[in-house]
Each structure stands twice: as C-alpha cells, then as structure tokens.
Amino acid sequence: MKGGKEATVYLVGRGEERLAAKVYADLESRSFRNDAGYWAGVYVPDRRVAKALKQRSRVGQAAQQAIWVMREYANLWRLVEAGLPVPRPAIGPAVSECAEAGSVVLMEFVGHGDTPAPRLSDVRLSAAEAEAAYRQSVDLLLRLARLGLVHGDFSTYNLLWHDGRVVLIDVPQLLEVASAARQARELLERDVVSLVTSFRRHRVEGDAEALRREALRSLPRD
Ligand SMILES: Nc1ncnc2c1ncn2[C@@H]1O[C@H](COP(=O)(O)OP(=O)(O)OP(=O)(O)O)[C@@H](O)[C@H]1O
Ligand SMILES: [Mg+2]
Questions:
Q1: Could you tell me if 146 and 218 are in contact, meaning their C-beta atoms sit under 8 angstroms apart?
Q2: Residues with Cβ within 6 A of ligand 1?
C-alpha cells in the first residue's frame, strides 16, 4: 500500500478478515510533526518524558511514537462512536488494549478484496461524483467542528473514496478545540483552505471564505 510521509500502511489478514496495519516509521523523518500546533493541549504527565519530547532525544522519539499510536486509536474510536465515516479500529476501545498494540494501528481495511480504496487525491471523478465527494467532505469537516474537533490535515490526501462514500483517515493529530482554542482555530482555518485547494483538481471551486466562517461558527460555544 501507499507509503506516506510518516507511516506505512500494510494489508494484513486475520483469518478471512482484511485489516489495515498502520506502522509508524522511524521518527527521524517525522520531526516535522513537532509543529507546535499539533502538541498544543497534549498533557504529558511524566516530566522526564515531557523534557525528552522537547529535546527530541531517542527516548523522546520513542515516547512520541507511542503517543501517536494511542492518539490515533483514541481518536478513531471517538469518531466511530460519533457515527463519522472512519475505519473502525480492530483493537479497543479499552485504553489498556490499545496500549498493547505497540507501534501499530490495526483497523478496518477500506477497500474491496485486496485493493485499497483510492484517496480522493488520486482518483478521477465525474463532475457529479466530484460534487458529491466535496459535499460529503465539507459535511465531515463541519460535523467535526460541531464536536469541537479539528482534523489538522484535512485534504483529499486523507480522504478515501469508497463506493461513492468519503472515508476520513489519518487522525492522530486530531485536536480538541477546548484544549487549545487559538491553535485549533488556526488549524481549522488551514483545514478549510487545504480542503478547498485540494478539490480544485476535480474542478470543484468551493467558497473557502464562506466555509471558513461556517466552520468557525459550528464550533461549540463555551
Ligand atoms: N484503513 C485503511 N484502509 C485502506 N487504506 C488505508 C487505510 N488507512 C490508510 N490507508 C492508505 O495508506 C495511506 C497512508 O495512511 P495515512 O494517511 O494514515 O498515513 P500517512 O500518510 O503516512 O500520514 P501523513 O499523511 O500524515 O504523512 C493512505 O493515504 C491510504 O492510501
Ligand atoms: Mg495521510
């Protein structure tokens, strides 16, 4: 399957069942994720780990990797339970079970047989399909916003196209607005721009400014 910037996703069999196994890569190549925005609001209880993370030492990187895996499980479960179209995790939802998963996120394989569903960035769509895909994607972004959540990497690169439905993936960096209001708003604005820009290749001209306003309005008020 596709090798991304930070993780490789493998197709694995569990009996008859097909699962996707997302293995986080060696962290050398992933330091770009140290982007402060992604870490805002993440509470690291162990002071030594917090320090190691800051200094990006080897221990810090291993800790960071484990945190990404745990966060991806937790976020996937949260979204599944909210009824959003994401791959269902194959482990959990108990945190203790997810903690045993090591550096692998095991989840539902989105595809047919052994063929993964394409990303919206890679697929050719008719005008009607492109409209439908864009509408579903906007709906997803706004449903997240209403839950007080921002994806943080929302574009056609992280949206699969499966049987006419959009499936959202790649959620370890999902951010709760409540935990980091300013960063989350900035990330949400960035997501809106990424989404609209990445749909241009499908000749869909979304109104970024209108969507930005609607998305910010959709966030829960406290
Ligand atoms: N559950 C799944 N079923 C089928 N294919 C998947 C699944 N999860 C991921 N993929 C494929 O694997 C690719 C990489 O997955 P993902 O986007 O989660 O990681 P990544 O791209 O390495 O992360 P990032 O984009 O942040 O660098 C996806 O683009 C998609 O093609
Ligand atoms: Mg990705």
A1: yes
A2: 1-2, 4-7, 9, 20, 22, 87, 107-111, 116-117, 119, 153, 157-158, 169-170
Domains, the chain, with CATH or none: 7-218 (1.10.510.10)
Catalytic residue among 46, 153, 163, 222: 153
Residue 209 backbone phi and psi in degrees, to 5: -65, -45
Nearest CA to ligand 1 atom 14: 4
Tens of pLDDT, residue by residue, the chain (222 residues): 544 447 889 999 878 889 999 988 765 554 444 445 555 555 666 666 677 666 667 777 777 778 889 999 999 999 999 999 999 999 989 988 888 877 899 999 999 999 999 999 999 999 999 999 999 999 999 999 999 999 999 999 999 999 999 999 999 999 999 888 889 999 999 999 999 999 999 999 999 999 999 999 999 987
Cα 42 from chain centroid (whole Å): 16
